[in-house]
Predict the structure.
Amino acid sequence: MNKKPWYKKWWVWLIIIFVVGVFGSNMQDDEAKPVTAEAKKTASTSTTEKKEAVKEEPKELAITEIGTGIQTKNFKVSVESLTKPKSDNMFVTPEEGNEFVSVGLLIENISEKDYTISSMIMFDAYQDGFSINEDITGHALKGSEKTMDGALAAGKKIRGTLVYQVPKDWKELEVNVDLTKLSFSTDGEVKIVLPNK
């Protein structure tokens, strides 16, 4: 009696068809699983959170009142005074219609590294939106002698002034302190915005 080869038997093909059918339907289920409302909400929330995290920028640090300050990762920056020093020296006088304005600052190094402070490089000033430069001669005025320049060791402080010559009718003085210049820190910028009172 001739025996049929195993692959020609009907039950072998039935098993093969069954196995292929089971695996095929499982693969289709994985690919086309219905997304529930909750799953959609979770995915949407996750995407929104990621977008917000990308959009989130560091908040602008601003000092708007004398006697207040801001602490960053490595520094404490405080505005101690805003004065209009009068000249008692005939060689150091403001131009006609102008006046000297002196901003007294205190910067404390609260890190464990040594830094350098430079009034020429780290400070940008604007009077009513117009760029202005520090008036070096203004440091000859009484009370404005100390500049914001020098080494600032870990745990130490520096106190000094920034002197500008501005029109007498100025409205707002803005000084931007860039703590990343020279100090090579990641503290960013502190903005000082003071009105004319």
About this structure: The longest strand covers residues 98-109. The chain has three helices and eleven strands.
